[in-house]
Structures are given as structure tokens and as C-alpha cells.
Amino acid sequence: MKLYLYNTLTRNKDEFKPLKGNKVGLYTCGPTVYNFAHIGNLRTYIFEDILKRVLEYNDYKVKHIMNITDVGHLTSDADTGEDKLEKGAKREGKSVWEIAEFYTNIFKENLEDLNIQEPDKWCKATDYIKEQIKFVKKLEKKGLTYKTSDGIYFDTSKYPDYPKLAKLNLEGQKEGARVEVNKEKRNPTDFALWKFSPEDSHRQMEWKSPWGVGFPGWHLECSAISLKNLGKEFDIHCGGVDHIPVHHTNELAQNWGITNLESVKWWLHGEFLVINEGKMAKSEGNFITLQRIKDRGLNPLSYRYFCLQAHYRSKLNFTWEALEAAQNGYHNLIGEISKLPKPKGDCPEFEEKFLQAINDDLNMPMALSVLQELLKSNCPSGAKRQSITKFDKVLGLNLDQYKKEKVVSWEVQKLIDERQLARKNKDFKKADELRRKIEEQGIKIKDLPDGGYEIE
Ligand code: AMP
Ligand code: ZN
Questions:
Q1: Taking phi first (over 0 means left), then psi (-120 to 50 degrees means alpha), and beta for anything else, what does residue 212 get?
Q2: Ligand 1 mean position, distance from CA 147 (Å)
Q3: Interval 97-141: pLDDT, tens
Q4: Alpha helices, DSSP H only, in 70-201?
Q5: Cβ-proximal residues to 259 (8 Å cutoff; 6+ apart), any chain
Q6: DSSP H or E stretch at residue 146
Q7: Which ligand is nearest to the CA of 250?
Q8: Which ligand has its closest atom nearest to the C-alpha of 220?
């Protein structure tokens, strides 16, 4: 069956065809590791995970690269303000390297909790400094750069397709440029490739370069890492919608300067998670982490389920009530599936419908409703389970729990989750109380030394 994906470049749902046979090169912009990822960031990674799983479900072989931004991302997203990593280090009284390692590890734990598959390769921006310097030299040689008092800039007026990805109105931007902070920039859209270390303060991360001691501009790492690992033309590049007008537009400009090609064929962007209709951002007060979800006794996979209930190109409003409702729905689903006998046979009609849904630009709300339809249908019970196990390869919701020794009802699972939280908080009185309640339901649990548990 054909796979259709919405390409930001064409503003159209186009039929997906890889550049080379059945191999797909996939690049996803990774986290800036100066703080925890918030659940808005994580929504984007869930969308990208679904994309990768759908590609694999369609028998494509995916090579997935993700970067870790550990240098160069300034607080303004443009080229002004402090480096987010240096700021994070000051806030916590640690070195930049410690901050980066700490938040990278937490990020990886978040991915594991959400059943998000890891990329084939992680690439830290600081491991690609040599490549980034080489790229700036190349762009300089082609006459695409100029020097100001604080760095080397890309002259965006030299790239005719600069406005293409974001459908930018450059004339409008020029009019608005009166408020432009950096008067040395030739065009408001020009961006830094290399920034000089400030003379009046000390940076922990800085490197020598032909232009002076400094650090790479934020957009450069993604060009250097993607082109080096996926080749000068590759299939798909993803991120959140905020990246369209600046980060990805600038990446395309750099890539073109380096390769003479429109190096990325497909750009896919996930819409924002919002809270009270406002943006969730690391800098705003409405910052919710996955840990907070866990601390409320909610299962991270309920958050994954919550995200799958909306299409990735629609805004999704977060409320605790909506997440709790999603958890109830998720637990009910697992409860129903657990009553089915061992997998045997399949339900082709529903498998076809499911494939149609996911291949229609990753329509996960539709895919979930096919799953519900299947459960209500008169397809044989063992066949239902078999088909659901297949669907879960894409959904990643751990629905096929028949593999586990015991499956419990969602009421009991809720008690177990609460007890796990009490154990974590060393509230052993509450944990014992909850154990009694669980045992009243006929379920025995054994605590494991690593903090986990087993159902006996
Ligand atoms: P950052 O760590 O800030 O570089 O962002 C990581 C990813 O999260 C990027 O792909 C962003 O586009 C995305 N992102 C940022 N805020 C949100 C949000 N509120 N909802 C969904 N994705 C977001
Ligand atoms: Zn990027």
C-alpha cells in the first residue's frame, strides 16, 4: 500500500518514495541538554518514533540519526543572548560538560519510559567541531559568508530558495528590521556560523578556529551531523513546527552552500503541545516534565496514548484531567486485550484498515479507532490478539502483554503504580497499605532489588 506523508516543502500530502531502494535516511533534531525535556518536546519525539515505526512497518530499512545540542544554542534562538548550556551550568554550579551529561541521561530515560526507540546513532555537537569548521571554510570560499565584530555570518541573500521552506516574506521582514539588534547583519535573516568568545567573560566551551577562538552557531551542527552520516542528499528531516522558519530554513541554506543541492527531500514537522492554549516552553512557567507525570502515579505510556489520540499536525491541549482520562482509556484497552486467548490467525480486513490509517500521513486517531472496532468485531478472539500484536509494533503501547506471566486489571495496575511511587518516596507505610489492597484483589507482588516489581 502507498504511504503518504505531508511534506512541509510542498505543503502537500505526497506519496513517499525513498531516494535509494528501500533504505531511508532519517534525521531528527535532538534536545538542547541544559534542562529537562518538557512533555511538549516529548510529544515531538513520540511523533518521530511513530514515523520511524510506520516506515519500518512498510518494510523500509531506516537509518536514524539524532543530535544532542550541547553547545551553541543561544537563549534567543537567533544569534543573541547567552549560550543555554553555559547558563544552565551557572544556574546549577556545575561544569557545562556535567550539565550536558546529566540532562542527556535523563532524556534517554524519558525515551525509554515512553517506549521511543533510540536512534541508530547519537551525535553530540561538540564531537563535530572539526567538521563544522570545515563547513564554514567551504562556505567562506564560495563567498557566502561575511565577518562582523562578533562572528562569521551566512549571507542569506545569496541563496535564492531561502524563503521556500517557511514561505517567508523577506520584504516584510526588512520593514520589521528596524528593531534588529545586530546592526552589522546585512539581512535580518542572516545567521551566525561561528561566534567569537566574548572578551569580557569566560566561556567553558570554546575552540580555536581560523577566525578566532569561539564556538559554532546552533544550526551548523545539524548540517554537519546529517550530511556526514546520511550523505549529501537524504530522505527525511523532522522537528517541531517552531523549527520551520529559522533552524531548518538555515540548515537548508547551509546544506545548499556545501552540496549545491536541496539536500533534504522530505521535511516533517510536529505541531505543539499547548497548555491553556499557550505554548509550553522551557522558559515559561508551564513546564511539565515526564517525572511530574510519574510522580502523580500516572504511567508514561498513558501520555504516549494521550498523544496518539491527536494527529501530529494538530495542536494538542494538555490538562491533567485529559491525561487521567487517557490513562483510564489505556488501562481499559489493556484490560480488554488481556482477556483474549493466545494469538492465532489474523483479521485481514482490520489489518488493511489499520495500514490505510497509518499510511495516510500517520493518522493515529484513526488507527486507534480501527483497534477499537476490531475489539468489538466478530473476528475470532485469538485472531484479534494476533492483529493487535502487529498493530502494537507501530503504536508502541505495550498492548501485547500476554507475553508477561500475569496481566492485571487496570484498577490493580493503578494500585501498583501508586505503590511504586510510595516505594520511591520511601513512604513504606503507604506502600504496605497498598500491598494489602492489591492482595485483596488476589494479586501478589514481589519487590525486586532494582526498585522494580514482579507479579507472582
Ligand atoms: P529543544 O530541546 O528546545 O531544542 O527542542 C526539542 C524539540 O522539541 C524540537 O524538535 C522542538 O521543535 C520541539 N518542541 C519545543 N517545544 C514544543 C512544544 N511545546 N510542543 C511540541 N514540540 C516542541
Ligand atoms: Zn537541528
A1: left
A2: 31
A3: 999 999 999 999 999 999 999 999 999 999 999 999 999 999 999
A4: 84-92, 96-113, 129-141, 170-175
A5: 227, 232, 233
A6: strand 145-147
A7: 2
A8: 2
